[in-house]
Amino acid sequence: MKNVKRFVVVVGLVSVLAPAVRAAESDGWVALFDGKSLDGWTVSENPSTFKVVDGAICVDGPRAHAFYTGPVRGGKFKNFEFRCEVRTEPGANSGVFFHTRAQTGAGWPARGYEVQINNTQPPHNGYYECKKTGSLYGIRNVYKSPVCDREWFALHITVRGKHIQVRVNDTLTVDYVEPARPARGAQRDGRTLSSGTFALQGHDPSSRVAFRNIQVKPLADDLADDVDGPVSAQEESADVLALGMSNFPVLDLHAHLKGGLKVEEVEALSRRTGIGYGVAPNCGVGFPITDDKGIEAFVASMKGRCVFLGMQAEGREWVKTFSPKAVALFDYVFTDSMTFTDDRTGKRTRLWVQDEFEVGDKQQFMDMLVGKIESICDREPIDIYVNPTFLPKPIAGEYDALWTPERMKKVVAALARNGVAMEINARYKLPSTAFIKLAKQAGVKFTFGTNNGGKDDLVVPAYCLEMIRQCNLTPKDLFVPGSGGKKAIERKAMPK
Questions:
Q1: Domains in the chain with CATH codes
Q2: Residue 493: which of 386, 408, 345, 379 has the closest Cα?
Q3: In the structure, what pLDDT confidence band is assigned to residue 20 with cuts at 50, 70 and 90?
């Protein structure tokens, strides 16, 4: 009861400042909520979950859904623009359904699409809901929310023919065109465009959400598809979509803004393919970001974006170049074992630069490399080990022979004891299937990464998708930033 009172007070204080609900039509917009009552709304399952407080519909209680059943269009909308303002409490999960129909029984709405509202819901009973605010639930997932809890934000949904767009404040999060034959499967065959009403979701007793200024602009039913060219017959990335529907986080956390690639293009690619991205600048001596101010400027420039922010920690010097406070601004930190000081020569070595290294005795080189990987995992506060198990060109063809079971076990043990995830790299097609299976057995988490060099090679990570199948990876095997627990920089001190 204390939580309910606290929620009502907070919403009330903020709602006092809200603009009055428009009762009359304005530029085609019509109010679906009068700001005073639930007239025109029918609540299923647990009616007490929905209350009106200070001009807002407050959701606080066990699962329930409020369906619009009022007079506007008889509650039947095909093409439309819908908008409302939403405010979440920490840990909340909710959503707005469209093209659905009122139901009186228990359960989730069986028809229509859901636009997800979830900024910070924690894992529950081993399940982490990785679909965040602005997602077209299970169809085009957003993995990082562009907004924060306890702040009012604008949600805008547009349907024109087969074209669905979702905006959160000014950020376009979904730009999806439903194909002629949408891939849904038997359990989600109702998640298609048709016509119907809207519904607000009360997800669970821990999810407290408020809605206000709920309006719709009905559009003509015979409106032409708002797309360039003909509607596709099939899904563009059906395999990615199938994974997304099963809450499998299809994330490329190793994307670089190089070769003229802009973050807007990365976001557009994400909307098209359904793959989420993490963009990572190179940080270290001789790289684009060399100090704390550079980190702060980069993070500020990405505010409100639907991409994770990763730090590629370059070389072994990075731990003395940046402060823990600045590093913690990133969602995660990753590094590789491609730069180190050669124990045999005392020289700084970069394994991808032919003139900077000498393999010499292969077995000695491999033992040194394994030792470097172990040291990196043990000493440096990193979340992900990327470009994993990379070997320089002169010996890359002997990968399976040089990466012996004993050496693989040492690397896997270092990852496991430090809680470091291992990247499955699409560009280098690393690590091997055997390495991945061994790491999975040890409880190591995985990420997917491209390590693109520019615009043209940031593509669907085919090798990663193949490893999901070959190694029987599940959502629980994946590392997702923000999914619970502390970041490495928060749990491990910088080495002295």
A1: 2-218 (2.60.120.560), 248-491 (3.20.20.140)
A2: 379
A3: very low
